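Weekly sync, protein design subgroup
Attendees: M.S., D.O., the rotation student, P.L. (late)

Item 1: inverse folding check
M.S. brought a backbone from last month's batch and wanted to see whether the design step gives back something sensible before we order anything. D.O. pointed out we never logged the input encoding, so this time it goes straight into the notes. Structure tokens as presented (187 positions):
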């Protein structure tokens, strides 16, 4: 158990020392406070955990954590030549979307789960971490469900596109009729 804890602690420190904005901010804080950046990071994580567990605005904080870094990493991935990182972040966004939809429909239950926002944040962090939890969820849950129901989903999407196309055509025709009527009134 201690060896596993040490492994994760080493991974955390390696992540903190990786070039990027997090390392830059923590290094600057370390220089100013003379406190090791790993302790500053643990303090930030502890405060965030307490805020998520008991604080006002925990939902907002959780959603910011689940969105900001993944959005940043997704843009970086899209701009890189490596396509593996694109796949990783696409899987994250699919898992994020499915989780968000499930959360919307179970909103009443959310209030009954103690420390819900802390647990959700931990889940999202696991999904975006180097452990690639989103890949696990995608490959074990979402993809098998999708493959099982792919033909029905394709039919539903085709019907939806058709109805939206007809609605758009009707709206364009209505707009043209209104414009023609307005032109006649002016003349």
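Designed sequence read out in the meeting:
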């Amino acid at each position: 158990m201690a060896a596993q804890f040490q492994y994760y602690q080493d991974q955390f420190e390696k992540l903190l020392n990786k070039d990027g904005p997090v390392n830059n901010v923590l290094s600057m804080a370390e220089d100013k406070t003379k406190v090791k950046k790993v302790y500053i990071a643990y303090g930030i994580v502890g405060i965030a955990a307490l805020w998520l567990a008991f604080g006002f605005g925990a939902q907002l904080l959780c959603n910011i954590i689940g969105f900001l870094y993944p959005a940043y990493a997704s843009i970086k991935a899209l701009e890189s030549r490596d396509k593996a990182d694109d796949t990783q972040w696409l899987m994250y966004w699919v898992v994020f979307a499915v989780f968000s939809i499930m959360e919307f429909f179970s909103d009443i239950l959310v209030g009954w789960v103690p420390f819900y926002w802390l647990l959700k944040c931990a889940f999202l962090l696991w999904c975006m971490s180097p452990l690639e939890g989103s890949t696990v969820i995608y490959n074990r849950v979402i993809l098998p469900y999708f493959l099982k129901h792919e033909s029905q989903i394709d039919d539903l999407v085709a019907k939806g596109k058709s109805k939206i196309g007809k609605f758009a055509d009707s709206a364009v025709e209505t707009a043209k009729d209104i414009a023609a009527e307005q032109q006649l009134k002016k003349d």
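Discussion: The radius of gyration is 24 Å. The chain has a mean pLDDT of 88.
Action: P.L. to compare against the previous round before Friday.
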